[in-house]
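A quick word before the example. In earlier lectures we treated sequence and structure as two separate objects. From today on, think of them as two lines of the same record. Here is V-SNARE coiled-coil homology domain-containing protein written that way.
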Amino acid sequence: MAQQPDEAEDAGRQSWTEQAPDEVDDKAGQRLYECMHDVQEQCDVMVRQSNDMLRRQLKVEGDSKSVLTSVGDVHC
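And the structure line, produced from the sequence above:
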């Protein structure tokens, strides 16, 4: 008796995948690509901001060793 729900689930999955048109896959793929592109842009912005912040800190302190030490302290 326990196998019947599993078989019903498998049948449901198969019927859904058979009915899914290619358009749905194309739209999902396009949305995934757009999402990944947005994440990459946000990541690039964050990297630029952190680099700018470190450069400003270097200019203010004038010593790269003190900047590296303070960054190391944050991680510890």
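Notice the following. The chain is about 90% helix and 0% strand. We will return to this example when we discuss secondary structure assignment.
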